[in-house]
Specification:
Chain A has 115 residues and is an all-beta fold. Helices cover 0% and strands 48% of the residues of chain A. In chain A, strands 2, 4, 5, 8, 9 and 10 form a 6-stranded mixed beta sheet that branches. Chain A has a 4-stranded antiparallel beta sheet with strand order 1-3-7-6, with no helix packed on it. The N and C termini of chain A lie far apart (33 Å). The mean pLDDT of chain A is 91. Chain B is mostly beta strands and 113 residues long. Helix content of chain B is 0%, strand content 53%. In chain B, strands 2, 4, 5, 9, 10 and 11 form a 6-stranded mixed beta sheet that branches. Chain B has a 5-stranded antiparallel beta sheet with strand order 1-3-8-7-6, with no helix packed on it. In chain B, a hairpin with a 5-residue loop joins strand 4 and strand 5. Chain B is globular and about 40 Å long. Classes of the chains: A mainly beta (115), B mainly beta (113). Chains A and B meet through strand 4, strand 5, strand 8 and strand 9 of A and strand 5 and strand 10 of B.
């Protein structure tokens, strides 16, 4: 596709339920990132995938959060037993590589609301 | 821990005026990015600054990077209403490459006719 796509665009769920958010990076981009944007915390890094290397999970706020990337392309961010403080916009980004010379292109985001 | 501070956080200006947004960061980095975000939209890449003294210009926006001062500026020349948006700077703190960007809190710019 032309850009990073994410689905769903909006997700409303009840506290305690699990949710899955999907990200399709730009074709050919080997690096994929998840960020979270919330009013109180601004933009926060969550997790980073580069090729077949082990992901950098250092930004995940709790063990309720996990992510995987299948086949080096599509990624899924899973939040288990959602809490109200998980409400935020979850942004996915991809870049051609992690060389530091390539900008990150962001998707439209998934707005998650936990009731 | 890398901290990125932007100021001002809110900026209201009239069309035709000039202004500068500042981005300070706390640890060594030579990679800094500026993004624009319109309400309800995602982040749009504006500039990638990869070395000390880098200066890039696009239309009415010009960004610069001083790695010694750990400072980047985004200068707006002769503002127009279409520039109204939130502007974020982001710093890559890693040595090896672009991984986890650390973002400033953003500057919400409103350009009034």
């Amino acid at each position: 596709g032309a850009g990073v796509s994410q689905s769903p665009s909006n997700k409303v769920t009840e506290k305690g339920k699990d949710v899955e958010l999907r990200c399709d990076p730009i074709s050919g981009h080997t690096a994929l990132y998840w960020y979270r944007q919330s009013l109180g915390q601004g933009l926060e890094f969550l997790i980073y995938f580069q090729g077949n290397s082990a992901p950098d999970k250092s930004g995940l706020p709790s063990d309720r959060f996990s992510a995987e990337r299948t086949g080096g392309s599509v990624s899924t961010l899973t939040i288990q037993r959602t809490q109200q403080e998980d409400s935020a916009v979850y942004l996915c980004a991809s870049s051609l590589s992690s060389s530091g010379r390539d900008e990150q292109f962001f998707g439209p985001g998934t707005r998650l609301t936990v009731l | 821990e890398l901290k990125v501070e932007q100021n001002p956080l809110f900026l209201s200006m009239q069309e035709g005026k000039n202004y500068t947004i500042y981005c300070n960061y706390s640890t060594t980095s030579d990679r800094l990015y500026w993004y624009r975000q319109d309400p309800g939209k995602s982040l749009e890449s504006l500039f990638v600054l990869l070395s000390n003294g880098a200066v890039k210009q696009e239309g009415r926006l010009m960004a610069s990077l001083d790695t010694k001062a750990r400072l980047s500026t985004l200068h707006i020349t002769a503002a127009v209403h279409d520039l109204s948006a939130t502007y974020f700077c982001a710093v890559d703190p890693t040595q090896g490459g672009s991984e986890k960007l650390v973002f400033g809190k953003g500057t919400k710019l409103t350009v009034n006719p």
